[in-house]
C-alpha cells in the first residue's frame, strides 16, 4: 500500500558473531509518531542504525516509500544519542543547525541567505533563537537536544529518526520536543523515536515497535502496549506492567 512508507523485511544484525537483531519485519504508515521500545540491550538503537545503513546488516531489506534507502537519503533526518556526539567540537549553535541544510545543497554550494534564515526559523521553533552564538558544548542537555532537533528540522525531511531524545533533558525541553514531533506527525511526516520511559508511551505515540532482539509486536499503541506482550519483551511479571497502567 502507498501509505505503508517504511518497510523492514527480514532484518538481522550481528556484531562479532553475536546476533543483535534477528529477522525483524514490520511496516509503518505515513504520518505516524512511532515509539521503538524494549529492555536495555534489546537492539533498539541498532534497529534505527541498521535501517538507515549506519551499521551493516547481516541480512534484510529496508525500503522507504517503496524505494531503496540510497534514493531517499536526503529526505531522512537522524538525531543520534547525545552520548554519541562530540560536545567538545568547536562549533556554535547557528552553524550546527545550518549543517541541516547541506543535504539539499548542490555540489560545492554554500548555504544562501535564505538557508540561513530558515536555520534561524528552525531555532525559533525549538525556542533556542537566543543562543545562536553559543558554543554547542556550553549548553545544557535539554538545550543541546533542542539544537539537534532544529538541525533535523532544517533538513526539510519527510522521515525523522531520533535515538533516545529525552535522555538527560529537562522537563521543559522534553515538552518542547514532544510537541514538535507531534506537529511533524500532523504535517504528514513519519517519526520514529527510540524510547525507554513506559509511563509516557500512551500519551506520546500512535504506534509502537516492541523488540527484544526479535520483534515482539508492531502496530497501534492500544494493541501492542499490553501486559502479555510487555512481559514477553521485558521478561518481568505481568503485574509489574499492570501497576503502570499498561493495557488499562
Automatic annotation (TrEMBL):
<feature type="domain" description="ABC transporter">
    <location>
        <begin position="6"/>
        <end position="238"/>
    </location>
</feature>
<keyword id="KW-0813">Transport</keyword>
<dbReference type="GO" id="GO:0005524">
    <property type="term" value="F:ATP binding"/>
</dbReference>
<dbReference type="Pfam" id="PF00005">
    <property type="entry name" value="ABC_tran"/>
</dbReference>
<comment type="similarity">
    <text>Belongs to the ABC transporter superfamily.</text>
</comment>
<keyword id="KW-0067">ATP-binding</keyword>
<dbReference type="InterPro" id="IPR003439">
    <property type="entry name" value="ABC_transporter-like_ATP-bd"/>
</dbReference>
<dbReference type="InterPro" id="IPR027417">
    <property type="entry name" value="P-loop_NTPase"/>
</dbReference>
<keyword id="KW-0547">Nucleotide-binding</keyword>
<dbReference type="InterPro" id="IPR003593">
    <property type="entry name" value="AAA+_ATPase"/>
</dbReference>
<protein>
    <submittedName>
        <fullName>Iron/zinc/copper transport system ATP-binding protein</fullName>
    </submittedName>
</protein>
<dbReference type="InterPro" id="IPR017871">
    <property type="entry name" value="ABC_transporter-like_CS"/>
</dbReference>
<dbReference type="InterPro" id="IPR050153">
    <property type="entry name" value="Metal_Ion_Import_ABC"/>
</dbReference>
